Structure formats: C-alpha cells, structure tokens
Amino acid sequence: MHRQWNLSVIDSPRPVVKLEHVSKRYGAFDVLKDINLSVLPGDVLAIIGPSGSGKSTLLRCINWLEPANSGIISVGDVTIRCEEVPEKSRLTALRRQLGMVFQSFNLFPHMTVLRNISLAQERTLGRSRKEADAISLNLLDRVGLADKAYQYPVRCSGGQQQRIAIARALALDPKVMLFDEPTSALDPELGLEVLAVMRELAGSGMTMIVVTHEMGFAENVSEHTMIMAEGEILEYGPSREVIRNPKTERARRFLRAVNDR
Amino acid sequence: MIETLLMGVTWADVKTWLPGFWNGFLISLKLTFVSLVLGVPMGLLLALGVQAKTRASRLTCLALVEIGRGAPALVMLQFVYYGLPSAGISLPAFTAAAVALCWNTGAYTSEIIRAGLDAIPAGQKEAAEALNLSRVDELRFVLLPQGLRIAVPALMGFSILVFQGTSLCFAIALPEIISRAYDIGSMYFFYFPALAVAGLFFAAVCIPASFLVEWFEHRAGAYSRR
Amino acid sequence: MTGADAAHIAMGIPMTLGLTAGAFAIGSVLGFPVMLARSTGFLPLRVAVIAVIAFVRALPPILWVFLIYFGLGSGLLNLSPFVAALSAFGLIAAVNMAEIYRGGMLSISSGQWEAARALNLSRVSTWTDIMIPQMTRVALPPSATYVIGLMKDSAIASTIGVTELAYRGKQMSQITFEGLSAFAVVGVCYIALSLPVAWIARTAEKKLRAKVAR
Q1: Could you say which DSSP state residue B55 is in?
Q2: CB–CB contact C159 B171 (8 Å)
C-alpha cells in the first residue's frame, strides 16, 4: 500500500498546461479572478458557463492572444510570468505547443485550403513545400475533406471550414489543442460534423481544452468539466459529476437554464 | 449663345491645335504613370511606417503623410518648383511636378492602404499569431495580400484623381493639356473652344475610367459579401 | 521672411474660408435636388443626371474655373475672379454632395421606407422625420472630409487672381525671393485650417453615434 502510494507520486504525470493565480482586467472590470488550473497530458477539459463569464478570455490568455495581468502560465516547459512582457522567443516557444481553433474559423480567404494548412508548417517548422503538402493532405483526409484541397475556403460550408481549421492547427504538431466555441457559429447539423472530428481527436489521446456550449460534448466526450461565471471557477471535476451534481447554486442555475431550452 | 462662345472657331482650326494637345496629353499621362509607380510603393511604406514601433520613423512617416494630405497639391507643386531653388535645389518642371505629385500620391495612398489593412477582420491577425507566424510573415502572407486587394478599387479611383491633378502643373509652366489650352486662349482669345477641347481629353479618359472603377467596386463588394 | 510677410500671407485666410464656405453652402443646397433627380424613377431624367454628374467630375477643377472665368468671360458674361471661382466650386460641390447624400440614403435599410409607408406617413414627413436625420449621420464624416478637400482645391482660385492664401504666398515668394518659406507658410495655414474642421466633424460624429448606440 505504502509502496503503491509512493509509486503513484512518482508516476503521476506533470500537467502540460498549468495556470497559477492568473488574473486579467479590462480597465476596472475583472474578467479573470485568480484562476488556478492544471491539465494533464491526454486530458480533455470542457469549459462551460454563461456568456461574459471569461471562459473565452481564459483560453486566449493561455496562448497569449490576450495578455493576462498577473499570475503564471506554463505550457510544457515554457513558463511565463504575466507581470513581465515576455520576449518574442518565449512566446514563440509557448505557441509552438498550442493549436488554436476559433469560433469564426479564421481561415485565410485568399489561399487555397492546402496553402492554409501548409503555410505555417513551412514558415515556422521549416518543412519543405512537398513535406508540408503531404502532411496537409493526410490531415485533410483525416477530417474527411481530401477533395477540398485545391478549393478556396469560400467554397466550403462552415462545418467544412472549421474542420479545415482543425487540420491547420494539427499540422503544427501541437501538444495541446485549444477550441474557442468551435461550433457556435454553425448550424446544429454542421456542428455535428465538427464535433465528430473533435471526438475522434479526443479518442486519439490529444490534450484538449474546449470552450463550448455543447453540453453533450462536455458530458460524453470530455473527461473534466469546468463551469465559470463572473471570471471565477465555480465547479471543476469529472464531467458527469459536475454536470449532474453541481455544488454551487450559481452553477445549478446556469445548468437549469441550459436544460430548459 | 453657343456661337458667341465658339467665336467662329472651325473644325479646321481645332485640327491645327490637336498635335499640341496630344503632346500635352502625353505629358499628363507620363506624369500620372510616374506618380503612381513611385507613389503607391511609397504609400505602402508610409502605411507600414506610421504603425512602426520606433518613434522616430513613426513620426517621420506621420509628418510626411499629414503634410502630403494637408497641403493643397497646387501649393506643393509651387513649393517644389519655386521654393526649393531658394534652398539651392533647382528642378526642371517635369521633375518638380513628379516629386510633388509622388509625395501627394504617397500620402493619400498610404491612407487608402492603411484603411485596407484595417478592414481585415481581427481574426486573421489572431490566426496568424496562433499559428506562430513571425510579424514579417504575417504581413507578407496574410495581411498585405488581403489589405491590398481591398484597397484596389480605391487606388484605381485615386489614379483618376492623379491624372486630373496633373492639370495643376499649369501653375509651374509644364506644357500639359491645360497649359496648351490656356496658351491658345491667350494668343487668339479663343478661350472657350480651346478649354472645351481640353475638357474633351479629360472626359474621354475619366468618364470611362470612373465607370470602370464603379463596376470594379461593385464586383469587389459582391466578392466580399459571399 | 519676416513676421509681417507671414502675416500678409495669413490675411488670405478669410478669402480662402469665404470661398470654401460659399461653395460648400451652394453644394449642400443644390446637392439635394441633384440627388433626388439622380435617384428618380423617371429613366430619361436619371440618365441625364448621371451623365451630367459624370461629366462634371471628369474635368479637373482648374478647368471648370478657367471655363467659367476665361471661357464664359470672353464675350458672354464677365464675372469677377471670386464669383467665377465660387460658381465653379459650387458646381463641383453640388455633384459631389449629391453623391454623398446618395451614399447616406442608400445606407438606410429598405425596412425604414416600408415602416414609414406602413405608418401612413406623408412623403414630406417620411423625408424630414425619417430619412434626413438618418442620412445626416452617415453623410457627416464624408462631408467633413469633402469640406477639407474643397478648401485645398480652392487654392486653384489663385490662378485667376483671387487673393486667397495661395495667391498671397506666390506674391510673397516673388517679392522676397524666399519661395521655400513663403509656400511653407501657405501649407501650414491650410493644415492649420483643416484641423478644427476635422475635430468638429469627429466630435459631431461621436455625439450623433452615441445617440443611436445601444
């Protein structure tokens, strides 16, 4: 027993994303209040909560799209102290480990689907055009869009664009994938095809942090769920537990409102 | 009334004027070409310069833009042609005109290009950042291709204004179209007919060009709405 | 160049402002009927107005100034340089303001017309109560930009002897042989004059926008 306990300490993997006391303000408004969070490799974490709760901001702070005001952000072996302005090289090292998928896809409209996926591979990882394109085509096949490689994004449906955006992020071999409401801009039907890709990705062992309104995804796919409101974490734990038996009244109110729809 | 204005000028008279007008027209075209070929890249540099991180380059570019846009083109022409000699720099009329109009073009097109860059949705910049593209790559592959494409109709419209602006070189005795008309007018007192012929040259270029720009704008709008 | 010389140039400011304001006033008033004619359902009139607008815009301002001052002046009607310049810039301003008004009108969603008709408002009331207030908000920024552009174009009046800023600058450069500083003073005057216009326009726009902001 003693031995086993010891072993579990030694074996317990280090978190791949860790936030310590992270806070962010817009003027006098506290968007994030003293957030602490660790995500283990292979974990899938869903972040839910009412709009304006700070969940998207939290996600965007992790890859420094929005600078936090204080606290410590670590991803892999890169640590950023938010009070300081990080050097460019450190930001690059941070973002290299993170893939990001946006609510509005943000594909580059003036490039073919293939160029969208290959560009950053060539420019940031130094892959050759041939290498990058081979990887891109492979990923397109994986998200079921091999036939779209030479089309422009405008020719693709929203669901297809989002799957391409996922492929674009995956092409850079991230350790962690961040999803910022990936299905919110989509019709329910098109959202399903994106969710299917995400489910497959979760099954393959990818570490994912997903800001979402999809309760089904939170409950059935993600291992952990976090509920946020007013810049604070209300609940955190195994998904089923958090969603079925929330401890706080505020979280219960939110979940009731979601279910009543 | 028309007869009073035409002053008995016949088609045969107009024919004898045409070679002179044609040469003046070519000067205007050449000047437009030079102003655009040098001025638009300058505008691009200024557009990037006013967003530069170093204060000195930002302020220099801002001053160049604000003076170029704030002072009338006529005054800039006179400044370069009549003013610079008192600083020991004498330029021939065409060169002086090119310098002044390039400055003017650079200042205006920098604003057009900046507006084009600003019109790109913020998500594009974020995506480039999230993909870890360097600032230079972000500009080269993501922002400039889209921003310039947005700016094209406005740049085309501005080209028409540059062509019209060459008429101001009358003030520095460059023999472009208006100068030719004025000379004929003052020599024989045939002001109205001579100026009317000059007007036909401008109308022949600018009316089709402006409809072309409008059509292009319409198309660009339809494209971006897709 | 002395301070007195600079002051001599600056004394052209009232003339520059007068010419600009006068032409803008003419353009703002005439621009409205031109805009209405431009948008009429009566095809021949609309085509004619489109053609006139295209023609007026196709010729550079200096040509309109010359056509009116020298062209009409040689035999038909003799106008003073100021009146000739005012007519030329008034004409140009009218077609440009018509286009600005039209932009404002097009920006109003068709639902507003339908709502006005559904509420049984008269044509006049539809314009004065519904359309014009909304058009003003949209047309204000381009109008302000246009006034500044018009003021700079008004320098062209110097070529026919209107004693405004550019004319006095040229005069001073010939008297003092210091073209550099003379034209620099002129340029600074124009820039200084355009700053308050830009500021007023920005403030007014902010106020108007705040009124309809959610």
Answers
A1: H
A2: yes
ipTM value for the complex: 0.89
The CATH code belonging to domain B2-225 is 1.10.3720.10
Q: What is the pLDDT of residues B188-210, one digit of tens each?
A: 788 888 999 999 999 999 999 99
Q: What residue ranges do the domains of chain C occupy?
A: 12-162
- Domain C12-162 of CATH type 1.10.3720.10: yes
Q: How far apart are the first and last CA of chain B?
A: 53
Contacts of C169 (CB under 8 A, 6+ apart): B75, B78, C9, C12, C182, C183, C185, C186
C108-139 exposure pattern, b = at least 16 Cβ within 10 A, e = fewer = eeeeeeeebeeeeeeeeebbeebbeebbebbb
**Looking at beta carbons, which residues of chain C come within 8 Å of B1?**
76
Flag if C173 and B78 touch (Cβ within 8 Å): yes
> Is A112 part of the contact surface with chain B (CB cutoff 8 Å)?
no
Substitution target from B120, B131, B226 for chain A, most A beta carbons within 10 A = B131
A161: CB partners within 8 A, 6+ apart: A105, A107, A153
Residue C9, pLDDT score:
87
Domain ranges within chain B, ordered by starting residue: 2-225
Q: Do residue B126 and residue A120 have CB atoms under 8 angstroms apart?
A: no
CA gap B122, B144 in Å, rounded: 14
Distances (CA, A) of C81 to A117, B193, C69, C90: 65, 20, 7, 14
Q: Which of residues 104-143 of B touch A (CB under 8 A)?
A: 121, 123-124, 126-127, 129-134, 137, 141-142
Residues of chain B positioned with their CB less than 8 A from the CB of C63: 167, 178, 195, 198-199, 202
The span from the CA of B124 to the CA of C194, in Å, is: 35
From chain C residues 24-83, the ones with a CB under 8 A of any chain B CB are 54-55, 57-63, 66-67, 70-76
Average pLDDT, consecutive stretches of 10 residues, N- to C-terminus, chain A (261 residues)? 46 86 91 93 94 92 93 93 89 93 94 95 94 96 94 94 96 95 91 94 94 91 93 93 92 89 72
Structure-derived torsion over alpha carbons of residues B203, B205, B208, B214, reported in degrees to the nearest 10 = -100
Closest CA to C83 of C2, C23, C17: C23
Rounded Cα distance between A54 and A56, Å, is 6
Rounded Cα distance, A64 and A100, in Å? 11
* Rounded Cα gap, residues A122 and A227, in angstroms: 38
Q: Would you tell me which residues 75-94 of chain A have a C-beta closer than 8 angstroms to some C-beta of chain B?
A: 92
C177 neighbourhood in chain B, CB within 8 Å: 86
